Amino acid sequence: EKGGYDHFMLKEIYEQPKSIKDTMRGRIHLDKGLIALGGIRDYERALANARRIIFVACGTSWHAGLVAEYLFEELTRIPVEVEYASEFRYRNPIIYDDDIVIAISQSGETADTLAALEIAKQKGATTLGICNVVGSTISRVTDAGAYTHAGPEIGVASTKAFTAQVTVATLMALHIAHFKGSINTSQFNRYLFEFQSIPDKVERVLEKAAESKVIAEIYKDATNALFLGRGINFPVALEGALKLKEISYIHAEGYPAAEMKHGPIALIDENMPVFVIANQGPSYKKVVSNIEEVKARSGKVIAIVTEGDKDVKDMADYSFEVPECDELFTPLLTVVPLQLISYHVAVMRGCNVDQPRNLAKSVTVE
Ligand code: M6R
Fold it and tell me: Which of 121, 123, 213, 361 is catalytic?
């Protein structure tokens, strides 16, 4: 059932063009210029008028929440908070009845996320779910929601569930922004047109998978790694670090690139691989100077760049190209090479990729 792949994780990485497309299917209507999200239809107005949206989640799903924060704030101008469910539940959180609390969970069974939702409900907030498992506990206890259609995810390391979560968050943010008028119809249609080309662009990233193996071979013996990104790609840096540590047991940390000089820069020497998301976009020039800072300290830079890039490619030790797309959709592309590199590093180190030590697919105890 691994479909010819050595591991479920690799199969699931390769399934992403399809799982993203499946998650978009029946929801994007270019001809009519609309997004249909049946599950949240009754809550569109509540979302558009929300005082605040709070995402609660754990692990990779929390990273998807951080991406959602950028999407929702940029497109809908509604204030967003993203909370670790485990912290939120024990903090006696301040929740208003015109807040919307959205749980993101692949399994729909994560104990802390479920408990966070129960508290939000008690305090009178509307609760929504973004789950992958149909009929899961979280999908049942929420007022409404929108499923990801990633299909079963077997590998403990989440890959296609993450990109499907980001896909649903993008659809929701675009839809609510259009509904409330924070983006106009021509902006909305332009985003829609561009967004539906993402699965093909993910496919193009996967066509270059061989390069991720070359990079993995070179850095597989590292004991530490840093992942840097800015803006909407800062959460992708966190996700890249989580992927590497959970399956290869290499200590890795993700940071917003500009935070480096507030501490982690002290770690950089010739043995430290630094993975930098340096795609073209509003942060590009800033990221270029962060790369210069790393190189000045003999760090090794592996950069994720936009096709046709020159400046970063000249500076970096290795680079991996992803197709150009609107900044808001870039996490769906930039995360893929990081998933692939982690996978290959873990295989080369002889780790149990699909079932890493000490980890369970679904954390149903706190
Ligand atoms: O099922 P959930 O999305 O609620 O799970 C949340 C985390 O346990 C999960 O994302 C975990 O961090 C993964 N192992 C990451 O790859």
Answer: 361
